[in-house]
Amino acid sequence: ATLDQTRAMTGASSAGGYVNNGGLSSLPITINGSSLNVPTPSSYDAFAAFNITFNTTVCFARRAPTISTITTTSTTLAVAFQAPQDIPFAIASYLVFYRAQPVPVQNILLNPTLDIQWQNISVPSAAAPASITNLQPVVTYDVYVVPVLQAGGALGIASTLSSNTTLEAAPGGPPTTVTATPTSATSASVTWSPPNITLQNGVLTTYTVTLTRLPNQPRASPSANATLTYLVLANTTSVVSNDLQPAIQYNVSVTAATSAGVGPASTPLTITSFETSPSAAPTITAVSPLSAASLLVTWTPPPLSQQNGQIDKYLILYSRIDTVRANQTILASDALFPIIVNQTLNVTANLNDSTTNTAIITGLTPYISYQVQIQ
């Protein structure tokens, strides 16, 4: 039997035949030169006539759509395809099916949010590429196109399967388990782990560690860098900064990057570098006698940016200077007072770092010169 496929519409055409040996299980049919074996009824009498009705779900389009190009971004696929050629059926629309490839299995285990079920979008024609959105970066997707016939909404023959991988994107999450620990007055250690595997969005290339000095710190040196940045390769997960100022607070954060860009920063951690001894001395502004045996010493603290911490005390060193006064004879009684060398006096500091400080040195020898220093 021969059937013209242009007549293969539901209820529109039939093919009849006779079974002449009672043993055939199918009827060979030729449709526009293409052979099709149609199963015969399961029960019939030998040489009995039978009739098979064809419908549109049997006579699919002989030619399928052809995917020409797939243009990718990190989250989209633009599928350009050509309509079937020489198809006698009217096409209402097309369904573009897609899914994330389920292999390798490790990807699914690491990324449970990966959807490997077939999904589809409907497009009215092949005139413009079909846009598949909301995909995940660096995932390979399978795609094929199926025409939807106007008659009964039957599906035509699908295109061949095409596979494309979405591009990388900047990481969608920050590095994890970030730690920041001061190790001296000028150094701190920072460690971290990579972002969650589902948020890496590609191959990590670098990490950036940033230490930012908090504002409104009077002891901060205006000439020192307020922001310290360290760029390291992705196989490194720790950095030691040796460029801090003493007794200064910093916010520490870490970012990860792929070839597509830099991801979000980790939640800032605040650290304070250790204190150390002042890098400048106090300035003595006056030494005045209060009595025959005491002196009043007045001084100002070191500059704030050189205090390197909270000054809690000063050390006053004083020593007697024995000289022969002009036109005077050293009295024998002077020998009763031994020379005083580097005697010390601990003085509690005024916690207001810019306030003038004073101290009284007592128990001195009358009418003797003294040298005073302050640390």
Can you walk me through this structure?
- The chain has one helix at residues 105-110, and strands spanning 2-3, 14-18, 26-31, 34-39, 49-53, 66-72, 77-82, 91-100, 119-123, 130-132, 140-149, 162-165, 176-182, 188-193, 206-213, 227-233, 238-241, 249-258, 261-262, 269-272, 283-291, 294-300, 313-321, 343-348, 357-361, 369-374.
- The strands form 8 sheets. Strands 15, 16, 18, 19 and 20 form a 5-stranded antiparallel sheet that branches. Strands 9-8-11-12 form a 4-stranded antiparallel sheet, with no helix packed on it.
- By secondary structure, the protein is mainly beta.
- It is 2% helix and 42% strand.
- The longest helix has 6 residues, at 105-110.
Q: What's the overall geometry?
A: rod-shaped
Terminal Cα separation, in Å? 116 Å
Q: How many beta strands in the DSSP annotation?
A: 26
Main sheet specs: 5 strands, antiparallel
Work out the radius of gyration.
45 Å
Layout of SSEs?
Blueprint: E1 2-3, E2 14-18, E3 26-31, E4 34-39, E5 49-53, E6 66-72, E7 77-82, E8 91-100, H1 105-110, E9 119-123, E10 130-132, E11 140-149, E12 162-165, E13 176-182, E14 188-193, E15 206-213, E16 227-233, E17 238-241, E18 249-258, E19 261-262, E20 269-272, E21 283-291, E22 294-300, E23 313-321, E24 343-348, E25 357-361, E26 369-374
Parallel strand pairs: 1-3
Antiparallel strand pairs: 2-5, 3-4, 6-7, 7-10, 8-9, 8-11, 11-12, 13-14, 14-17, 15-16, 15-18, 18-19, 18-20, 21-22, 22-25, 23-24, 23-26
Short description:
The chain has one helix at 105-110; strands at 2-3, 14-18, 26-31, 34-39, 49-53, 66-72, 77-82, 91-100, 119-123, 130-132, 140-149, 162-165, 176-182, 188-193, 206-213, 227-233, 238-241, 249-258, 261-262, 269-272, 283-291, 294-300, 313-321, 343-348, 357-361, 369-374.
